[in-house]
Write a structure and sequence with these properties.
The protein is an alpha/beta fold. The chain has two domains: about 5-145, Response regulator (Rossmann fold); about 160-215, Winged helix-like DNA-binding domain superfamily/Winged helix DNA-binding domain (Arc Repressor Mutant, subunit A, Orthogonal Bundle). It is built from ten helices and six strands; from the N terminus they run βαβαβαβαβαβααααα. A six-stranded parallel β-sheet has the order 2-1-3-4-5-6, with helices on both faces. α2 (about 40-50) packs parallel to α3 (about 65-75), α7 (about 160-170) packs across α9 (about 185-200) and α8 (about 175-180) crosses α9. The protein is globular, with a radius of gyration of 18 Å. This is DNA-binding response regulator. One of its GO terms (biological process) is regulation of DNA-templated transcription.
């Protein structure tokens, strides 16, 4: 009988040291193998499209595209790809955004040596993997919504607007952003004006503060 093929993994994190440590954990398992690495979210999307791995492990805080933005794009374009978020943030907001972006699990870097291998296996079995604090957050959120009879709030801005917000906050000019996204500078300016209006902000500085507050970039 043929041996089952190991799960092919794409690993994305902007810190080479973290990638090295995570790769050591994963490549030490016979049923898991890292086939590609990326140091930002946009490269992760490109690598996934080219190599078609079984599983993508994405850090949240990365340049160009965050792990959450990359997860949304990959869920849309490669629906069979399983996604895990690996993060230092024990944060309910990111956790719920990760689930809505299409991730099957959320693993804290602080306990990756304990949880990551099982998270990969659970995800490939089609099971969600949640760290203990996330389970508590899910239950609490569900009970709150039941008690108050409310649905989850809709996102204020579109995926494209979020993409441009992140790039503006990282200090790129309209021309830079236009070149990166293959759109016109005028389109970038229109999106930026829409962002300022929707979010009730005045200028680039306030956009940058907002991007930090919602976790698109690190302070």
């Amino acid at each position: 009988m043929r041996e089952p093929q190991p799960t092919r993994i794409l690993l994305a994190d902007d810190h080479a040291l973290v990638r090295r440590g995570v790769r050591l954990i994963l490549d030490g398992e016979p049923d898991l193998t890292v086939v590609a690495e990326a140091d930002d979210g946009a490269e992760a999307v490109a690598q996934a499209r080219e190599l078609r791995p079984d599983l993508a492990i994405l850090d949240i805080a990365m340049p160009r595209l965050t792990g959450l933005q990359a997860a949304r794009e990959l869920s849309r374009t490669l629906p069979d790809l399983r996604i895990l978020i690996l993060t230092m943030y024990d944060n309910e907001q990111y956790f719920f955004e990760a689930l809505s972006a299409g991730a099957s699990g959320y693993v804290l870097k602080s306990v990756a040596d304990r949880d990551l291998v099982e998270a990969c296996r659970a995800t490939m079995r089609g099971e969600p993997f949640l760290y203990p604090g996330a389970v508590n957050a899910l239950i609490r959120n569900y009970l709150d919504r039941m008690r108050e009879g409310r649905a989850l709030p809709a996102r204020a801005i579109t995926d494209r607007e979020e993409e441009i917000l992140k790039l503006v906050a990282e200090g790129h000019t309209s021309q830079d952003i236009a070149d990166m996204l293959v759109i016109s500078p005028k389109t970038v300016e229109r999106h930026r004006a829409n962002l300022l209006q929707k979010l009730g902000l005045k200028d680039r500085l306030e956009l940058t503060r907002y991007a930090i507050r919602v976790g698109l970039i690190e302070p």
